[in-house]
Automatic annotation (TrEMBL):
The keyword S-adenosyl-L-methionine applies. It comes from Kordia aestuariivivens. Signal peptide: none annotated. This is Radical SAM protein. The keyword Amino-acid biosynthesis does not apply. Pfam families: Fer4_12 (PF13353). Keywords: 4Fe-4S, Iron, Iron-sulfur, Metal-binding, S-adenosyl-L-methionine. InterPro entries: Aldolase_TIM, NrdG, Organic_radical-activating, rSAM, rSAM_sf. Its cofactor is [4Fe-4S] cluster.
Amino acid sequence: MKDTINILDLCESGTNVLGPGKRYVIWVQGCPFNCEKCTTPEGIPIRLNKLTPIKSIVESILNNHEIEGITISGGEPFLQASKLSKLLADVLQIKPELSVLVFTGYTYKRLDWAKAKDFLRYIDVLIDGQYIDKLNNGKELKGSSNQKIIFLTDKLRDEEDYFYTKGRNLEVIVEASSQTIIGIPSRQLNH
Ligand code: SF4
């Protein structure tokens, strides 16, 4: 349990619709918020889902030589802050060039506990705040306009245009028995 992360899913092959460049995605399980029309409601229940060894996720990230970064979404990543810090420390020690983008339902100023502060040290861009469906403007790489795109380092500063005007796209992954939509939908596409 100690060296595992409770995940909802992974996108190990990478996607181009959750941040600049091709990115590995980790969706964690469990969120203390319950935003109306959350685009990932299956990630809300705080329950054990796929307990996945940190080591295996690190290896999977390091074995993907096409990605430019990692996106962590949910569920609520800060519920597993210390485990995600460990994962990012291990990855960035070997590939410091990878960028890290994290979506959280907490506002930045509420992330004031020690483990949250430690996790923030590994994050280049934080998109904060709960999703409010009526404020979904369909443009920026965030669910709704109350949320903020916060550049915690300069690593992705050159990509500001992507975050503010070009980032909204969807990708559909079709597998034998399922179809998954990745990306941030506009309001009318939300369920
Ligand atoms: S914070 Fe994010 S994952 Fe949690 S309920 Fe809101 S939209 Fe869904």
